[in-house]
């Protein structure tokens, strides 16, 4: 689509420029895409470029953002996690399951104090992440398959907990963080921002963050350098599951209900945010900064399409095409970088 | 040599150079029908280059190339194949997930008139062919489930039975057990009776002498000897290979070298009866502080596996190892590193991060010593700068991506990773392979300096020079077993080759 053309054009231009631009292609292209999309929608609709709408976009990408923090770690290690949306769903359902529901809700819930409910739910998602981690590192199942199985397992646990019903109540803390706001800023945006910042700090300034990049850059070399590669891979799978769980709990509060299949669209959205942002699918390149740009590209696109008059069924196709374009750029940027390195 | 026949293959005055370096200089070579022609020479002597010319892999060369007396010029390996030339490469190139029969018929399965594969016919014919070779396996079993040696025999069988008139075998016996070697030789002799011309390349001179009619020796891109196998000996062939008193090779270690009296310093590593599938058998040795232990052997002798076991990358089937007297069973390379073992593998690509700057490459293995939680980039750079200065890595810019450095300098970076906090035991695989003389000398000096600092060092190499230039004590590894130890005695290249 239009935005992909800009990005590709930018890619072509880069050939004639310094190798620096080439090597930075994966950071530049998503940013240009974002600027182009924003400019396009600002011209096309007077209601798009307003402060109110910026708030809307931020709120709309918050849950995706929280989930994408953990997924960024996973993709930086050249792995994938397909269970993020299911784990978000089951954790959101669990936190409601451990909360006292109204009498008309027909769920065999186990009411606990708020803190205990939250703690147990986080424990649950961490545990599911640990199963992913063990499957990947100890048994040696490729993450694509392992997390595909986990996607079903988590969905199965969700189904057993709610049995087709809908729960509404969550602990007060979760309700506030998910749907409250402070000084006009929704808490969920603040949580997403804090988690993104935290992810960035861990990746950039800690030893663990360095290990994540090195394992993603060349796994064999990481092993021959005496790093415990399995431990690092296991850790990112758990981090991903916990981030998904937090996103799930706040998401439930944000939507006002907990039910089956509530988070299905978040799988594709989260992966898209990370990849559109320019984090390499081959690992070792990119980061939270890229994920933030990717989130905005998706947010602006989703929100903007609502502002212009467009067939709502066409929206899905357009999003698919944008994702394809981002994948092309992602692979292309990797090649450019390798060329620049030669 | 069968006189009176005319050769099926004849090469005259072949010269081939790669970027100004002559790999072959005016080589004549003839192969007769019904002849097994053995080819020996050191790594880089020109054997493989010549075979690749015959097999149509290298198409640019000067000299005459005749098949059945007709001048020919192949433009591709496909042309060579069409002319009846087939080659078995050293590395297995089978499809482990397909059946034995499919592998035998790879690329030309029998089909019926609808283009469907005739499985029953294929299985029957594959079984018959393999039986001729003395191989009795179910043609419908999965190839990957068979032992490696059998897989290699089946690959050789495929080539031998493809109807080729000229068959080139490159190191076919390195993965085979003695009875398998016997079966291979039987088949080669039968093919010889049928009039096939066979070229047999091997480091195992005994094998060459046992099966060949004619032996040709290469050295430095020239043919230096051609003789009937019955008229020569292992010693004479080795002498011809390394050229005693012949052309002056730079630093060839043809003269005797005196190994020092064995060190009595503390034992850092004790290896006891290490075995691994087909790679290693009951390997036992010790490495001492302040000593360089050289381990020499041909490609595939088990060196690689041994080095991986020492660094926790592979787990042995049986046997024990102890570091500083403490028994160890490394669960990961991280555990080996913590126990004070360091490895520099033969491939730089396997241990370096090409897209990361030099300083991150140097600091990665010692990051847990520099920082607990937060990174300390200034300290990392300082440490890297010190190493770059000490090892004279060029260019001396620690922020440069590693990929920008030359091969020799990359090798130094690979060493530098372990030097800031020196390990107790440093295992080096092929530390000087592919380096120019200057870089080689640098690495030799670094290793000697480390020995002086009290490290136990193990150098594994398939090049005798590398081991001879570095080691205080030398083990010779042959088909996974230690067959000879040189210590406190005279040693030379031909003695090493003789033992291996």
From TrEMBL, chain A:
Q: Which Pfam family, any one, appears in the UniProt record?
A: BPD_transp_2
Where is the protein found, in the record's own terms? Cell membrane
**What InterPro entries has UniProt attached to this entry?**
ABC_transp_permease (IPR001851)
> What residue intervals traverse the membrane?
31-51, 57-75, 82-100, 112-131, 143-164, 184-206, 227-251, 313-333
Q: Which UniProt keywords apply?
A: Cell inner membrane, Cell membrane, Membrane, Transmembrane, Transmembrane helix, Transport
The answer to whether keyword Transport applies is yes
Cellular component GO terms, alphabetical: plasma membrane
**MF-aspect GO terms:** transmembrane transporter activity
| Membrane topology according to the record | Multi-pass membrane protein
**What CDD domains does the record point to?**
TM_PBP1_transp_AraH_like
Give the top-rank taxon of the lineage listed in the UniProt record for this protein: Bacteria
Protein name, as recorded: ABC transporter permease
Q: Which organism is it from?
A: Bradyrhizobium centrolobii
Automatic annotation (TrEMBL), chain B:
Its main subcellular localisation, reduced to a broad class, is membrane
Keywords associated with the record: ATP-binding, Cell membrane, Membrane, Nucleotide-binding, Repeat, Sugar transport, Translocase, Transport
Taken from the record, one Pfam family name reads ABC_tran
The segment(s) forming the ABC transporter domain are 9-245, 263-499
Look up and give the membrane topology term: Peripheral membrane protein
Specify whether Membrane is a keyword of the entry: yes
Read off the SUPFAM superfamilies from this record. Answer: P-loop containing nucleoside triphosphate hydrolases
Q: Do you know which InterPro entries this protein is assigned to?
A: AAA+_ATPase, ABC_carbohydrate_import_ATPase, ABC_transporter-like_ATP-bd, ABC_transporter-like_CS, P-loop_NTPase
Q: Which GO terms describe its molecular function?
A: ATP binding; ATP hydrolysis activity
Compartments where found: Cell membrane
For this record, the Gene Ontology CC terms, alphabetical, are: plasma membrane
Give the family, as the similarity comment puts it: Belongs to the ABC transporter superfamily.
Physiological role: Involved in beta-(1-->2)glucan export. Transmembrane domains (TMD) form a pore in the inner membrane and the ATP-binding domain (NBD) is responsible for energy generation.
From the Swiss-Prot or TrEMBL record, give the protein name: ABC transporter ATP-binding protein
Provenance organism: Bradyrhizobium centrolobii
